[in-house]
Amino acid sequence: MGELKEGNKRIEWMKREPYAYWKGNPTVAETRQDLMKCNVSEKEDWNARLYSQDWGRESQEGYKKSDLAGQCTHKYKVYIEGSAWSVSEKYILACDSPTLLVKPHYYDFFTRGLIPVHHYWPIKEDDKCKSIKFAVDWGNSHKTKAHDIGKAASNFIQEELKMDYVYDYMFHLLNSYGKLFRYKPSISDKAVELCAESMVCKAEGREKKFMMESLVKAPSNTNPCTMPPPFDPPSLHANIKRKQGSIQRVEFWEKSYWEKQNMKS
């Protein structure tokens, strides 16, 4: 988190490359392979700069070309899931650059808290290239509004995903899950207790380093946050409708944009 915050300061947003950037492994999903068709070529420029990541080679070379804090160099970042949700989502959102989010099928635990056109720009799954082209052209024509989207997402990651809140989420999630049990859990006679020390001893290298850094040495001084009551049906429906309305508005702008382009040609 700290490294990403510092990485954002290296190049201010207005001076970043005016294109959509993505780097990852395209072989894990057809939707990513389809995204690679949007790369710049001699025939077409969809305003996208897309790079294939070879994680095997990266591992051998010490991950020198996959430094997350060093990838905040373009005005727009593309998020696209892989075979399921991608761990990259929070890192992409934290870059101060508007996230062009290809319509997802899977969700991270915080994804439903994101608001279209406020935290990210929605990209069509079935027409990625045109959708990305329009998003970048719109952002380059509305720089202040586009930058506000990037900042809103970055602030969301920095403020709403603090580890204290993540632990609160885990606490409430496990308690809610426990209430669904139809039996009383018990410890088996053959069970073996695992303490933190026994888990860390077998770890090596970075794994051990990260386990030690995240070790909880004492109970929290404060209680977990109090969960607000769940949405009532009308409020939930209104929230869903508001998000759908934002996405439909972008789709209308996009359709109008391409109709004008066709008329010019």
UniProtKB/TrEMBL annotation:
Pfam families named in the record: Glyco_transf_90 (PF05686)
InterPro entries reported in the protein's UniProt record: CAP10, O-Glucosyltr/Glycosyltrsf_90
Extent of the signal sequence: none
Superkingdom, natural source: Eukaryota
Domain Glycosyl transferase CAP10 positions: 1-184
PANTHER family, alphabetized: KDEL LYS-ASP-GLU-LEU CONTAINING - RELATED (PTHR12203), OS04G0534100 PROTEIN (PTHR12203:SF99)
Protein name as it appears in the record: Glycosyl transferase CAP10 domain-containing protein
